[in-house]
Amino acid sequence: MATRKQALKAVDADGHNPSWEEDALGFLIAPVAREEFLASIYEQKELLNLRHEPDRYADLLTLDSLDQFIASADLREGMLDLSNKHNRITREAYLDEDGRVIQVAVTEEYLRGATIILPHLHSSMYNLGEFCRSLEEVFTCHVQTNIYLTPPSREEGKATQGFPPHYDNHDVFVMQIAGSKAWRIYGTPVTTPFRGETFEVATHQAGEPSQTFTMNAGDCIYMPRGLMHDAENSGDEPSLHITVGLITKTWADLLLESISELALTEPAFRRSLPAGYADRAFDREAAARYFDELINTISDKAQMDSAFDLLADNFIRARQPNISGVIAASRVAPTPDDRYCRRRYAPWNVAEDDDGKLVLIGPGGDLDFKQEEGDALERALSGTPFIAADLKCENPDELLQRLWAAGYLERVG
Description:
seven-stranded antiparallel sheet; Outer Surface Protein A, domain 3; single chain; Jelly Rolls; four-stranded mixed sheet
């Protein structure tokens, strides 16, 4: 059994300690370089960074800010859950008849040893949302957060723990915010499980851990999906951590999409399965030959690019638009000398529809533009600062205002 105790200096290969605003992935994995992580670690093995920097994640979340959020937010079903390995808790124990979270019930269960879970808190806290958007830019996938707050144990010899040994069906980064948590790694019973492939306690037995370690505030671990693990509070303080989940598309998704597109032009794929195919006495020989013919057609005619484009555009459309600052900035009227730049973490693409209009594909939906506005659109979204006069089109102020209102732009000094 290996026990990891070494500390790592949170600097990249050039000796720089990146903030999450500068380089979100580097912030998590330094001193490992991005290229090394993506080539040798991502989806393959865990990466443990024990840093001894207790305030490293303080501008993302603290125990006090979480306490205030739970006390003041109008929490509804699905926004907060409770879990206790030693005492199963149903949602009826802390939800009223209208689906609202009963805060007093939450605190009572927490004091009895329950772990408080807040899924998707990045949708309610700005910095967490920006952090997720910055990682989405790296991985081209939906990035979500789950927050876990586990109380210290009040019983001798009985650690507080939210979940038994399990694996996740998506890759995660775990950032320890406060307190300490003792982790056990057991191995990988399923390599890169599908998103819908749930962990079955009866099927996968943990056995003896292959690695144990304790994470303290400021520490981080990356775990690929399928890696079995569990964790329990360690010490006399509450344990608070953020689990950042990467909800990726797979090669299977791309292949399925390409076959779906092929079926639009190849009638053979749209034929019904043979009559009686579910009968136990059905002869599958002819069906097998037909299946092989379809496989050959896929090999000859399936195209990657259009399916790739569709998955990419759907990803961009599904992002949450970031309009922070748009309303506040309206206190001051814009001037011709105001400088703008494309907002960071705002993905986009431009396509042409059947009517010849330009379609700006972006977070929250599409925007239509005239063909003659194409150069101005490219200039505005290039990432280089500009003023309205730099947009060479019939009505640059209108184009700028549309992009500004949709969250594509920010003002720069």
